[in-house]
Write a structure and sequence with these properties.
Oligomer: single chain
Shape: globular
Strand order of the largest sheet: 1-2-3-4
Order of helices and strands: EEEEHHHHEEEEHHEHEEHEHHHHEEHH
Length: 405
């Protein structure tokens, strides 16, 4: 009987080469345990062909071991991104933030997030007026450019990718695809990094991780004490995509779901990832605790709550580093005029609930991030019914490049 054999069950793992869940691992017959993760075979023989046998290491041959095929990744050229970085006067998402939300933002703040994340515009074609969210990795490579169309409430009405739009344009006009696009289509995974990942080399702030780029943009506008990143969607949170977060402290804000499935999924994933990459992951249960059932059934996310608040409240300085209370105490919350001893959250006094969720950040991070979390929780509890406020005008210089006439 052979000491090592390929698992004959239906269980599959993520391939260490192509990262698809088509990987069969070797088992040690002596103890019944899996061999280290690098020993196994990928089922995608024509597209990956990864196979490392433990026998090849000891000099024996179980079966012929195929050479590892290195998957070459193609990135989107910088000039494609550059072509999107204009036309903000017709960008529905941007104009909503400047003119149509309840508390319009200052032009300087919008220009700042545009520059930070390289947010762009589709200026022609069937996605005209859509916003572009580029996924740029920590080395500056452009992995993908998501295209989102929004209505006047900044709710999604259409989703696409820039490479698909370019391909359709060439196909309809009987044009040959550019070589980069032909190669790019061979990538097994298009969205293979975090949105905003390139910012990690510029900031040592705590990281806030959300699902969608839109939420990361909102988070940056309201709570700039964090570096806001997005994974793309609920199921995209995985070890491979989060490797750039090694050594960082990460605070996760999953979307709501009717049965708490999203929160549970991310909580389980967070435990797996922090062990694999040596990071510290904290999953916020704030929305799970306070959100009404109707919000959960609609799958609301943090952005749906933030946009109802006046962003200027988050510019308020609660205290200076010299004045901040250590440790936190009840009197301090009374001074903020929002502590109510009659309020409980799942049987936990509001004071204890808030303290437990901000003290962790204060222990490890900046005064700014600490204050922003306090303010977020203050506003969420104060406006628990979340009525939609009327539009409040702000001073917006007409000469700005991002303002529509």
């Amino acid at each position: 009987m052979m000491q090592y054999y390929l698992d004959k069950s239906s269980k599959k793992f993520d391939c260490p080469n192509c990262h698809k869940r088509r990987y069969v691992r070797y088992i040690d017959n002596e103890n019944g345990n899996y061999m280290p993760i690098n020993y196994g075979r990928c089922d995608r023989e024509s597209k990956c062909s990864y196979h490392l046998s433990p026998y090849s290491v000891t000099g024996y041959t179980e079966i012929e071991t195929k050479p590892i095929k290195i998957m070459k990744q193609t990135f989107i050229p910088a000039d494609v991104l550059q072509q999107t970085l204009s036309g903000y006067e017709q960008n529905t998402f941007i104009q909503n933030l400047l003119q149509r939300v309840a508390y319009p933002f200052e032009v300087a703040d919008i220009e700042n997030v545009i520059a930070m994340y390289n947010v762009g515009t589709v200026k022609n074609g069937y996605r005209k007026g859509a916003v572009t969210f580029p996924f740029i990795d920590i080395k500056g490579n452009i992995r993908a450019i998501q295209v989102k169309q929004f209505n006047s409430d900044n709710h999604t009405t259409g989703t696409d990718f820039i490479h698909s739009i370019i391909e359709k344009h060439h196909t309809l006009n009987n044009k040959k695809l550019p070589q980069w696009l032909t190669d790019y289509k061979e990538n097994d995974i298009k969205v293979s990094c975090l949105f905003g990942e390139h910012l990690l080399t510029k900031h040592n702030k705590p990281v806030a991780l959300v699902e969608a780029p839109k939420t990361a943009i909102y988070g940056t506008l309201y709570m700039p004490g964090f570096v806001w990143l997005a994974v793309y969607n609920l199921s995209s949170l995985n070890v491979q995509k989060c490797r750039s977060l090694k050594g960082r402290d990460v605070y996760l804000f999953p979307d709501l779901s009717p049965d708490g499935a999203a929160f549970k999924l991310w909580s389980d994933k967070a435990k797996e990832i922090e062990k694999a990459i040596n990071a510290r992951f904290v999953v916020s249960d704030l929305l799970e605790k306070i959100a009404p059932d109707q919000d959960k059934s609609k799958g609301y996310d943090l952005a749906d709550y933030l946009i109802k608040f006046d962003w200027r409240l988050f510019r308020t300085k609660l205290f200076t580093p010299q004045q901040e209370p250590t440790p936190l105490n009840v009197d301090y919350y009374h001074d903020l005029k929002y502590f109510d001893s009659s309020i409980n959250v799942d049987g936990e006094p509001l004071y204890d609930f808030i303290r437990s969720r901000v003290h962790d950040v204060r222990e490890h991070h900046s005064n700014a991030a600490y204050q922003e979390l306090i303010l977020l929780q203050k506003e969420l509890f104060k406006n628990k019914a979340m009525p939609k406020p009327s539009r409040v005008s702000t001073s917006l210089p007409a000469h700005s490049l991002v303002m529509a006439n």
